[in-house]
Fold this protein.
Amino acid sequence: MPIAVVRAETFYKPPPSMPADAWADVPAAELVWRWYETRMGRRVTPPTETVDESYYARINQNRWLADCTSCGSAAIVSPTDPRYACTECNWGWCALIFPEDVAAIEAALLPLKPGLRNWWNDDDPANPNRPPDPEPEPEAGATP
């Protein structure tokens, strides 16, 4: 059976010293904060504010990711909780843009080896394979 595309709720798990369901009540977007805290051994607090910015989620080597436009860090995210706040620079909560049919995108990637599963939203300005913008229609009566 192929390995599913990794989401925050399947990646950010409590350490073995804790019960497996210890973070079951934590929203997917906040799991990275718990995970980061246990790995760094220090208290970190998610920001309380929301910033007026949206990020495009993408799949990078079989993981849903969001990149911080403030510091360049990234985290694994989830379409079940489409928001992101950076654990590195504490940039506030941003809305994430996922494709309309997440399941179809994930299914289309399953035949590929996990390390080759990459996907960018066509509208993402950072997409290296972004389709060119369509040429504007010439105005009526204008000569080319």
Q: What stands out?
A: The beta strands are 50-56, 58-60, 63-67, 74-76, 83-84, 93-97.
